[in-house]
Amino acid sequence: MCLAIPGKILEIDSTLDDLFRTAKVSFGGIQKTINLCMVPEAQVGDYVLVHVGVAISKINEDEALKVFDYLKAMGEVEELEEKAT
Fold it and tell me: pTM for the full model?
């Protein structure tokens, strides 16, 4: 099963060009660098759904927090934390 995880964009890097932007995204305190090529309109402070390192869509804050709460309840957040260390 594929799952997209919500995260908040903290920083955007467009060193290469505007098409190949990357972003530092926080997933409940866990930070990862992801690709923004599929959501060129994304800005710092936006929430995005991320699948295999690529933001696939924007999501509003309320929905992102609700999904993240569901993931915590399922124990999926702890799994992310273990892999990050």
Answer: 0.82
